[in-house]
Amino acid sequence: MSLRFFLINTALLSVIAVVSGNYNVCSFMLCDVFALYFLSCHFFILQFYAPWCAYCHTFEPTWHEVGAELKSMGSPVNVGKIDTTVHTSIASEFNIRGYPTIKLFKGELSFDYKGPRTKDAIIEFTNRVSGPVLRPLSSVQLFQHVMSHHDLIFVYIGRESFLKKEYYKAATEYIVHTYFFTASEEVLPKAVTLQDVPAVAVFKDRTYYLYNEFLDGDLSSWINRERFPSYFQIDSFSLYQMGELSKLVALAVVDEKNPSEESVRYKTLMETLSTEYRDHYKSDYQFGFMDGNEYINGLIMGEVEMPFIIVLNMTIDGYCLPESKIETIEDLLRFLNSVLDGSAKLLGGNGFLQHAKRSLYKAKSTVVSMFQAAPFFSCFVFGLPVGIAVLVIWATCTAVPADDEKPVEGATASPVLDAHGKKAIELQPDSTEKTSEAKKED
Ligand SMILES: *[C@@H]1O[C@H](CO)[C@@H](O)[C@H](O)[C@H]1NC(C)=O
């Protein structure tokens, strides 16, 4: 492990471009400033990119801002980037398949960033992951302060124990998602009553839940199940993460810009169910609502009119839709139970046919959105190869044998490449596209 890491380090040393505060990006040869940085510490957040990746270009300014802000904050984390098309061995070492991929390196560990690609979210992630795995809450005031700033925190209460070791291990894995604290009994809010110490609690939904070794299984999978609020606004990034959750996702998909009476009712029903039936459904369902149906449409390759209620199995990209209208909480309960007992019709999935269909759907929507965004440019991009082909055929037919090579090479090779390069830039400007791509690689 350490030898391997040493080799990687040495390789990285010569290839990482440092994004520094004054917006200099050193080219990916040995960069002296960087070498110094690198040797003095092992904290890095790296972007693995490819020059042809359109989204990487759009993302570039954000990445620079991250670099500048971390530097001005005095963060020990260095920001860099690696061209994976040049350094293919590093890309395969880290199994990089989507672009841009963001990873944080902390000593021998690496952590994947899977959240939204915004400056604030990346900086929050960097500070959380690069800091201590367990953060002590040493006073009542500090406890209150932390609670008021986070929707969800895990807290270990007690002294050293076997449970604490387990907690530390789980925290190392899940710190990419949330914060882990330790506290003594004295600093807990008055409302918290413990049967046993040591204990692990999750504070969320304006209350707290305690881990029970006998009912909840091992600590790590309990943390995985509890790391989201019971009901919240789910975006495409958190939905994507729910593939690892082994829970079904019950969603009210609504249009927040034009909230109808029905969408308010769907949201209320979901929220009520998530609290009143928590014990019943906590290991089967994650509840939430989503604003806009774009992502779901892509997932189910169809269009459902908002608002609607849907249950998703993110592990297999499967879904169920209610067969009749949902008016009451009983209707919703009946629907959720029918999904659990298998009587509801499961649609979608990730079989061969679904895969093929998904690729077609994606290609179609890409082309459509491209023509919508830039009709003239698209005509040019799609027209150019055809034009060139016609030219080549014409040139081949009319050329005298001695001139054969020239027109073919000169006319085809480079323009076609250019057209593709440009085409890629226009193609995927939105993050939804990216997520579904990122999803495919896993
Ligand atoms: C999702 O579907 C797969 C295959 O049918 C099944 O094995 C798995 O249990 C489902 N996931 C959940 C959370 O029900």
TrEMBL record:
It is an enzyme of class 5 (isomerase). The keyword Isomerase applies. Residues 6-131 form the Thioredoxin domain. Keywords: Disulfide bond, Endoplasmic reticulum, Glycoprotein, Isomerase, Membrane, Redox-active center, Signal, Transmembrane, Transmembrane helix. GO terms for cellular component: cell surface; endoplasmic reticulum membrane. PROSITE patterns: THIOREDOXIN_1, THIOREDOXIN_2. It catalyses: Catalyzes the rearrangement of -S-S- bonds in proteins. Residues 419-442 have a biased composition (Basic and acidic residues). SUPFAM superfamilies: Thioredoxin-like (SSF52833). One of its GO terms (molecular function) is protein disulfide isomerase activity. The chain crosses the membrane at residues 27-49, 367-394. InterPro entries: PDI_TMX3 (IPR052250), Thioredoxin-like_sf (IPR036249), Thioredoxin_CS (IPR017937), Thioredoxin_domain (IPR013766). Residues 1-21 form the signal peptide. It comes from Sinocyclocheilus grahami (Dianchi golden-line fish). Residues 405-442 are annotated as: Disordered. Its EC number is 5.3.4.1. Gene3D superfamilies: Glutaredoxin. It comes from the Eukaryota. Probable disulfide isomerase, which participates in the folding of proteins containing disulfide bonds. May act as a dithiol oxidase. Acts as a regulator of endoplasmic reticulum-mitochondria contact sites via its ability to regulate redox signals. It is a single-pass membrane protein. This is protein disulfide-isomerase. It is found in: Endoplasmic reticulum membrane.
